[in-house]
Design brief:
8 helices, mainly alpha, DNA-binding, homodimer, 219 residues
Chain lengths: 219, 219
DNA sequence: ATTGATGTTCTGTTACTTCTGAAAGAACAG
DNA sequence: CTGTTCTTTCAGAAGTAACAGAACATCAAT
């Protein structure tokens, strides 16, 4: 029953210990469980080669950017999936522990790029990924800015305040710190401006740039 | 002699086993070594509180972006240092093994943000960081793009090519892959355009944006 | 050739992150 | 209430990356 792909379960797999001396008694419950399990197997998305390729690559990319491999893989799977998936489906498809899925999903939820939805007739939570790529990256970037850029700006400001002008080399240190602080302020500025614009506009601006470049190259 | 900060070495620390029955004989070599060591200690940059703060924070930030802590710390140290530092100075200042410094410096060199320079009268290599913050980040971003964005674009293209249109759900997968590919193409476009502009222009554009925002807010 | 100083590569250890399986907890159906 | 299904939490196992120290390599001076 565990090796989903290799064989379908037989009814016998569900037979209870209620065997009689004359033979097995299959009650409704048993038959129902059997039917359910077969349906589950049929519904379970088998990964195509392309999907596997995408999910594996995405996982690797994640690790390079300080994002957990499993988290990234789950996101990739949900992004490609046309329907919301239950935690167990995710676990089986990616061959990871159920608990691992739980914590990973939670992380994706805190980023706001995955959310739980409910499917009629199913008590389990199903998870689906946001599909708007631009919005997704905007969210991730915003979070990371908050967690990494902002504290750095903070630190630089504190450093500049703490700088003792009587100390040897204070002038040079101040110069360097100010240059770095200037950069981070500018990045923040850029981010704020991007945030203000709706997704479509950024996309259009970029496309405009592309066209201009092409015209220039042609002319 | 190892605990640089705690005490200066005495001449006795260098005395050879050439002691005579009547008393110690200090030859020129010994005195010279002594003088050198004292000079070294005096020259060795003692980190100020602010410098420590900056270096530690930078190291932490590095780890979050998939950059080795030591690599980031060394960069921070060199960035703040008004003069090029020898490997051993770096090792002692940051309390890491020289071998670690060697490999870390090499990595910084491959990124092009640190380079070896020679100091007159010193056979050792000294290392200094690029000081132009904008240029530094441009270099790092360019490298990371090459190592991470480009392979991802590659993968997406391959996926789209490999997609079997007869397979179930191929249409949906194509949709998702194309959306993602579009995003990565746009990012590449943006990067190329930024690269084309000299550092100063990007800075000016940003500042312009800031001013516009301020005017708008005031008016 | 020898010695000492400097720089690099390799290897085993350490520290850290990720992951699993078990157990507890929560929601629900009968 | 009781058993079932689903989810979360947690402690420890497994895996990974960083690191120190040793061995090796290079070079300069003599």
């Amino acid at each position: 029953m565990r090796d989903r792909a290799s064989r379908l379960p037989g009814v016998a797999d569900f037979a209870r210990e209620s065997d009689t001396p004359t033979g097995r008694v299959l009650d409704f419950c048993v038959v129902f469980q059997y039917i359910q399990s077969v349906l589950k197997v049929l519904i379970m998305a088998e990964l195509t080669g392309v999907q596997k390729q995408y999910i594996l690559h995405w996982g690797e990319m994640g690790t390079r950017w300080g994002i957990n491999r499993t988290v990234a893989q789950i996101h990739a799977l949900l992004y490609l999936s046309p329907r919301a998936l239950a935690a167990e489906e995710i676990a089986e498809t990616l061959s990871v522990a159920r608990s691992n899925v739980s914590t990973s999903i939670r992380e994706l939820e805190t980023w706001g790029i995955v959310r739980a939805v409910h499917v009629l007739g199913d008590r389990r939570e199903h998870y689906e990924s946001m599909k708007d790529v631009w919005e997704m990256f905007r969210l991730v970037i915003e979070q990371r800015k908050r967690r990494e850029i902002d504290p750095t700006r903070e630190m630089l400001r504190r450093c500049l305040a703490d700088l003792d002008p009587h100390e040897a080399g204070a002038d040079y240190t101040r110069l360097r710190l100010e240059a770095m602080a200037g950069f981070f302020e500018a990045v923040t500025e850029l981010h704020d401006q991007m945030k203000r614009l709706p997704t479509g506009t950024v996309r259009k601006l970029l496309r405009m740039g592309t066209k201009m470049k092409k015209v220039k190259a042609a002319g």
